[in-house]
Write a structure and sequence with these properties.
76% of the residues lie in helices and 0% in strands. With 171 residues, the protein is mainly α. Helix 1 runs antiparallel to helix 6.
Length: 171
């Protein structure tokens, strides 16, 4: 029991870390983001950063930026895998599709749930860029779910995988 708990904590930590590494990488190499970024000259990006940090209180700008990154990281990379790990542990699920697919679905749904919870006017509408970002978030969740499944959810061998028909001949 204690070993299972340790394995679960290690799996959650590794899955969250993998998602936190995958998300910025996926955003940076995404062709849609690169296309939008290439329309801005490099000095324009520097000007935006400079104006952000040269406001009345640059510490507030840094705090806001770190808080935004923290919130996105938690809502997309950590919370979905924790929810799926809890549900999978209670349901004794061992399926790769359960962990990878459900984590991906939760990660992709997080921005939409937040938008709906704030009673946004465009709650059910999606632009092509938002659909693209939703795909990136889904893939981030799939990466986290896969890592967790590989470390902690495949089973420890003590679970009878044959099912309730194991006594009957197959044929």
């Amino acid at each position: 029991m204690f070993a299972r708990l340790i394995l679960t904590v290690i799996g959650l930590a590794c899955a969250s870390a993998a998602a936190l590494l995958f998300l910025p990488f996926a955003v940076l190499v995404d062709p849609l983001v690169q296309g939008a970024a290439s329309q801005f000259p490099a000095d324009r990006w520097i000007e935006i950063l400079e104006s952000l940090f040269l406001e009345d209180d640059p510490q507030e700008a840094v705090t806001t930026l770190v808080q935004l990154i923290w919130t996105v990281g938690m809502l997309v990379c950590v919370v979905p895998i924790i929810i799926v790990a809890l549900v999978g542990g209670v349901a004794r699920a061992r399926s790769f599709l359960f962990y990878a697919g459900l984590t991906g679905a939760f990660a992709a749904a997080m921005p939409w749930v937040l938008r709906a919870s704030r009673f946004a006017e465009r709650g059910g509408q999606m632009s092509s860029a938002e659909g693209h970002l939703t795909l990136i978030l889904f893939l981030t969740g799939v990466v986290a779910g896969t890592i967790y499944w590989l470390i902690a959810a495949r089973g420890d061998g003590s679970v009878d995988r044959a099912g309730w028909l194991s006594g009957q001949k197959r044929g």
